[in-house]
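re: the backbone from monday

yeah here it is again, tokenized this time
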């Protein structure tokens, strides 16, 4: 998949994944990878930025498999931001699809 396409939609996929349930970093990498091929080096800086922008809050939860894990939770501001991102994505992809269809019809 085109790297620029991935970059443009990655934030929305991350926000939507955490909207469904709180997740820790590696779990989120696995979830997002079902849609977009990403690695930890891509996800963690995005999580840090979204947390700094107050779209996520974090908390620690004990793990049976090692040290406590940092979980990400979508804040109220994050829910609104995710909704805006989804609306913008839908409008964008609809415009592109319409454009491509019109070009084929000419």
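seq for it, each position gets an aa:
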């Amino acid at each position: 998949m085109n790297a620029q396409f991935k970059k443009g939609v990655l934030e929305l996929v991350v926000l939507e994944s955490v909207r469904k349930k709180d997740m820790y970093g590696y779990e989120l990498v696995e979830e997002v990878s079902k849609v977009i091929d990403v690695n930890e080096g891509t996800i963690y800086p995005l999580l840090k930025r979204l947390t700094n922008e107050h779209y996520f809050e974090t908390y620690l939860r004990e793990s049976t498999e090692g040290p406590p894990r940092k979980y990400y939770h979508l804040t109220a501001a994050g829910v609104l931001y995710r909704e805006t991102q989804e609306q913008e994505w839908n409008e964008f992809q609809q415009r592109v699809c319409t454009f491509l269809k019109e070009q084929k019809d000419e």
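The chain has four helices and three strands. The chain has a mean pLDDT of 91.
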